[in-house]
Amino acid sequence: MNFDDSAEEASFRAAAGSWLSANKFDYRTSRTSENFFDAVRKWQLLKHEGGWGCLHWPKEYGGQDAAPIQTLIFAQEEQAAGMAMLSVANTITIGMAAATIMHCGNSQQKQRHLPRIARGEEVWCQLFSEPAAGSDLAGIKTRAVRDGDDWVINGQKVWTSYAQYSDYGILVARSDPSAAKHKGLTFFLVDMKSPGLEVRPIKQASGGSDFNEVYFDNVRIPDSNRVGEEGDGWRVSLTTLMNERAAVANIFPTDFEQVWNLARETPLNEGMAIEDSAVRSLLADWHVWSRGLKNFGMRLQSDMSQGKVPGPEASICKLMLGAQRQTYLSEALDLMDFGGPALSNSGDAGWHFAYLRVIANRIEGGSDEILRNIIGERVLGLPSEPRVDKNTPFNAIPTAL
Amino acid sequence: MNFQFSEEQELLRSQARKFLEKECSSQVVREVLESDQPFDRDLWSAVAELGWTGVAIPEEFGGLGVGYLELCVIAEELGRALAPVPFSSSIYLAAEALLLGGSSTQKQRWLPKIASGETTGAFAIAEGAGAPAWNRMNTKAETCGDGQFRINGVKTPVLDGLKADIAIVVALENQVPGLYLVDLNQENVTRTLEPSIDESRPHARITFSDALGERLGKPGVATIRQLLDRAAILVAFEQLGGADACLQMAVSYAKERFAFGRAIGSFQAIKHKLADMYAELELARSNCFFGAWALSTDDPELSEAAAVARLSISRAYTNCAKESIQVHGGIGFTWELDAHLYYRRSKLLNVALGSPARWQEYLIQSLEQKEEVAGNHARVA
Lengths: 401, 381
Known about the structure:
The complex is a heterodimer of chains A (401) and B (381). Chain A has helices at 7-23, 36-50, 68-80, 84-88, 91-104, 107-118, 233-247, 256-265, 277-305, 315-335, 348-361, 368-379, and strands at 124-127, 143-147, 150-161, 168-174, 185-191, 197-201, 211-222, 226-227, 267-268, 271-272. Chain A is an alpha+beta fold.
């Protein structure tokens, strides 16, 4: 056990740090506008040209063949340099879409997309959830019908983050409605500029529009864009979801530095909030939680650096983040007392935004309830609920009373 | 960077676990709980024979000098087995106090006997319920020349104090608290059994009436805090083992027990509870790992790491112990089922080295000091 860098790791960290400080740029001005994704692409290209992009990928696809631990070190330094948000925004592209192509795609598909993704030329979205299939993802209805060398897609996807900025999407659709639920699915790569494909942003409870509805009206996808066999879409989707859990494991903030500074700067009674015993108790709990997530993430990374595939236990990260973060953010706002409601006070707007945005942390990328099922069944080995729909042809499954 | 125990350490773990499964069944724990034995002497001899008592004591003082990571592994297994032996008092507290503050004469005199298991220790800090400031402590130390001190006062409860050979006593000399080593086998010490929440680890009330003792190291709170920090990390591993045992017990039961025609673990009400227990425990385990590393390298963040590990595993163990009983239902509230042994032990370890409120305050103080050293606000995370 060693939480320090080896000599080799320390020199890698130093090199990463100096490259980052020489190349980082101020993207904050573009944060709320469409050109945020221009910054995401630009940063990906800069990293690629500097030899720091997609570190763990094979060289032939634009990576560096680096050890997973180096990926972790670079991510830590990127965080310290204030540039992590740009890479986090590219998580769906690299951590999910590219990871699935790398794992399940054929060599043509890899050659076509991976080098372009490495250079920041392609942004991807994930076309999985539907209005009637969220947690029950295998219940999707979007149809894929074979027509010559193409597939014709009809249906609707929803909660598709960044679809409005994406060049491509990974899509799972139903190719055989008479097969059992998990067996009639097929996985595709779809060009977001395809005729018949329409993206409609959704206004979120927090006010922004990260995610979208995506409508498919006779959208044609060449069969060469099919990943895996016909009917094998569920297995390919699980590859995406396993990678998603690992990819999002450590991207959400725990806000400890911010609340520490808030307690330092907020007046309470005769002094400052940090002098109050109830506030000190809150800060201590918050820190313990924050360190737990950080240290657990390090253990996951450590496993990966020894070649282990991220398992279902990675679900812990997001499960332990969302609800607790929501509770703590609420307490942070309480610290502001009479002044809590104002958004104009310097520095407070971030707290309000976070308190609204955190709602989604418990839902996006697998709801807390689904994550508990995953941990219960795949980690602890508990039996699943009886499933009335498991072996029934999909088109015979009841959908209402 | 590597955040796992090594293969050798994992091998030690599996040997320790096998040994304890055989030699420390819950029947062994119950024999101490239900009798007036102070601890299980056969188990204690066997543990000493295996070298566990000396694993982190340097060779020059009769130990094996292997290291703290190995001691953490052993602690986890002892905690899993609820071992009814004075291991924590003798090793994490008495031996550590000597290593921290003892003169070379004191170390030469006592450590080899602790390492061999011949001498057992106790840590006498509490004076009844409450958390008074250090200078309100009633136990006093008064110098009587030649490095000897007269100790007067009553300490209770003292874990493993009933039959321990030596105690590390926290006492005030001129209003300053310090650590004093007192040979308990002297006339001026009287001990009685103190009923306690977990009598598989009996406690004593010890009265010192002009008892002779020696000071360990410099007087002052700093040495006491250092001792508490080091012990907290080792105890955290006992808590980790205990919490893991509770979870495993509950998971096995949820797979076997049927209700409404199916295993109760298939119901989300039970499954989700178990998932939450596991998730909380894994974060706590990660904090314990960081603590183990800080202890093994004497890292500057040791104090912070100790508080983080102790706070998170105390909460996780308490939760796993009580929810494991809940999963078992009525059988969980019987004397016959082992679940209450863990419930008792979890509460004992939760308070025996100081309450969560105490450690929350220690943690914030560590962060404030770190901030002061770094000279800005942004370094605390």
